[in-house]
Amino acid sequence: MSARILDGKETARAIRGELAGRVAAVRDRLGRPPGLTAVLVGDDPASGIYVKNKEKAAGAAGIAGEVRRLPGSTSEAELLDVVDALNADPKVDGILVQLPLPKGIDPDRVIDRILPAKDVDGFHPENVGLLAIGRPRFASCTPLGVVELLRRHGVEVRGARAVVLGRSNIVGKPMAMLLLQKGSVGDATVTVCHSASRDIPAIVREADLLVAAVGRPGFVRGDWIKPGAVVVDVGIHRREDGSLCGDVVFEEASEVASWITPVPGGVGPMTIAMLLSNTVAAAERAGG
Ligand code: GUN
Asked: Whose CA is nearest to atom 2 of ligand 1?
């Protein structure tokens, strides 16, 4: 192993520490803490764990975190009513509807209904559009966590050839847009690969920075990595033996890369830290 570790756990801890002062300032000015409400529809076990982790992290940061649990039988109209009520609630600064939603509910209609100023997930078309034109307000938490992790480790992205594997609305596309932003953490030359891309290993071999978000365990092999490249692994999968792994074969890639994220302890903790950061920013804009 020659690569240095991009330590998401420690970095997220530092960010949470920094948020404490801003949370206190919101409390002073608004007379209440920043508020984050997560809406969980149905009983998908993975979503249940994610939402619980978000609730715990919010509480630890002094944010009033609440989870609205709705049955899997909830209709789209009922869910839209819940979103409307949260939009109108002055104590709620951030709203997050956990995805995926049960069949029969159109996620686009639900996301479109969230007030853009409370859309701390950064999924609303208005926020996606602002990011696309270089005026970011709320960006999706996982890609935002990736750029913050790189910035805090002093990894230079400017002018680098960045390859993003995956084109999802939650990770791949906003990741590409963030890396493309002018200045600070952006200014990369960005290529996005997806399921129809030809010869992905050849494209990855050109990458100074690789962000893997394909959702396939061990998809990226060590001999795809350019020596000295920076490797960020967004994937998280459970192996049959119960251990966790990412989209990249860590043991191989870490022999070649200069920096690499571990799984777990890399991108995951950063996602939650960015959700808290977006929530505090929403509360600050709300007058706090
Ligand atoms: N499902 C998977 N990732 C996310 C996320 O970042 N936010 C929400 N709301 N749902 C998700």
From this structure: 99
| Ligand 1 centroid, distance to 55 Cα (angstroms) | 14
How far apart CA 280 and CA 120 sit, in angstroms, is 9
Tell me, what DSSP letter sits at residue 90?
Answer: T
Residue 183: predicted pLDDT: 84
Cis ω for the linkage preceding 100 (within 30 of 0): yes
- Taking the C-alpha atoms of residue 250 and residue 233, their distance in angstroms, rounded to an integer, is 9
H or E stretch at 41: strand 35-41
- Domain check: are 161 and 78 in the same one? no
Instruction: Tell me the residue range of the domain where 191 lies.
Output: 141-268
Residue 128 in any domain: the answer is: no
Q: Which atom of ligand 1 is nearest to the CA of 271?
A: 6
Residue 241 exposure: Cα atoms within 13 Å on the Cβ side: 3
pTM: 0.97
The tokens describing 21, both together, are: 């002062």
pLDDT at 166 over 80: yes
Residue 277, pLDDT score? 98
Q: Kindly state whether residues 105 and 145 are assigned to the same domain.
A: no
